[in-house]
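#struct-pred

JT: dropping the chains for the assembly here, can someone run the whole complex?
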Amino acid sequence: MVGGVAAGLAERLGLDPTVVRAAFVVTALASGFGLAAYVVGWLALPVAAGDERPAGASIIGRARSDTQGLALVVGLVPVLVLLLLGASVLRTPWLGSVAWPLLISAAGLILVWRNGTDADRAPIRQLGAPLARFGTGPHGTWRRAVLRAAVGVVLGTAGVSLIAGGQERAVVRPIGGVALVLGAIVVVFGPWWANLARELAQERRARTRAEERAELASRVHDSVLQTLALVQRHADDPQRVRSLARAQERELRAWLFEGRAPGDFDADVATLGDALRQVQSEVEAAHGARVELVVVGDAVLDERVGALVAAAREATVNAAKWSGAPVVSVYAEAEPEQVSVFVRDRGKGFDRQAVAAHRKGLAESIEGRMARAGGRARVASSPGSGTEVELAVPVARPAGHRRREGRA
Amino acid sequence: MTGGRPRVVLVDDHRLFRAGVRSELGDRVEVLGEAGDVAEAVEVITASGPDVVILDVHLPSGGGQAVVEEVKRTDPSVRFLALSVSDAPEDVIAVIRAGARGYVTKNIAGDELVEAVQRVAGGDAVFSPRLAGFVLDAFAALPDEAPPVDPELDQLSAREREVLRLIARGYTYKEVARELSISAKTVESHVSAVLRKLQLSTRYQLSRWAAERRLI
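RK: done, full complex below.
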């Protein structure tokens, strides 16, 4: 949906988002109050954790100090009074009943527009685009637009007059009227919305591609770049360099020709504990440091937990390679709400500011990966006192309970 | 402990390992004797009366648990520090419940082992990261579980849980104390309290928990 309100509300109430969406649509069509409730919810609901904005921040907090916006909203009151007056003068009660929700929605949208982030504004801009672009474009479209507008106006007027018209044929009247009004809306706005849907799909594809590229970059970093760094460190030890090169060659071949990406787990690895034990033995074999692993509880190795383990592997490799500490402690805990991993060493530590920007390990393989998986990463380190990396992902809910995703 | 060096008996069925531990401990402890199986261990321990027995969890004919139970019957003052390479939590928990005051893994560094022996000799509990993890697992609340019979014994306090988590993350007692802004003495008393609960609680999972590993 537009602002992700239905999904957010569904998560809060533990319902299926589709049910909540249907409830909004039905109440919106029936009286218009569903629409108003949706906009107000957009204003008031805090943003879910894992979104790019700070958790718990709702637009209404900012709107409260937006005096200009509030003045605009107060300015809508006379419009409401006018509409209500007009409704009673023209004896059209339906106008009076839609005036309230329409104006509440307008007020809400003004506040969202003025105080929301770009992410909040985007859907409003997209929905408003047909109006803004109406009549622009090359000649052919101009003529077609006029034609569409004319047909729309005729259909719309007919529909409205049927809804508001005389008393005869009491059942057929409102149904036919609603159908005509809907037809008018489709004729006028349909092409733009079709266009819009296409653009949205394209945008999503582009985003998926970008994420795939980032995932590929972190895989390459974790395998090939790590090995090259090891080769440089052991340049005076031909035996070790040879065995590193051989291992890397095997891994790359498996990746390119058998589809087993570096960092993938053996077929029989199905849980967080199994995967971390594999990481433990691989890191101990490749880097010589001892890895102390403690796992409390366990979790199924799904996509998020897989990303968590991949980031934990990277943190463990970093600790084994750079810290100089003989032991790396890895602690994993699966709780009902989240799965977390702590990777700690008592090595030399580092200063975040001093780490070269082109070193992608921390930013890409750990922090970027955790962000893509909807989790978080915290790195605490200072020169001389060792390093602790804390990683966590929320436990995946059953399908249909995802957080404010798929704004469409 | 009489004066300076703790007096120790080594129990492990691998002679090579005993020799390795002996040389790592050096002259910082006094090794009174060694044993390779349950009967021999009971005999050596009752004859020499050590402060601390360094005890392998896995021993032929009965395991470390049998040694602790046997010796405690005649001499409850002997203290045990369990040692193993094994990952099987139920074996480790069984030795602790029989009366051992600590558990460390065999890849522990020499200095740390000496420190652990001194701690046990002084009456404190020694929790390695792995044991802390086992205990957190054993006391974890299961979603569809009946309320504890004896809340005093069957549950960890929030603070005890915090302490155990930090130990499991690789913090030493001193580092735990700094992290939580409490004294090292307080950390020790939390750990001793956990040990007591572990030994006295009749909590269902303590005997059976391995069968119901929590998988979320």
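JT: nice. DSSP finds eleven helices and six strands in chain B. The mean pLDDT of chain B is 84.
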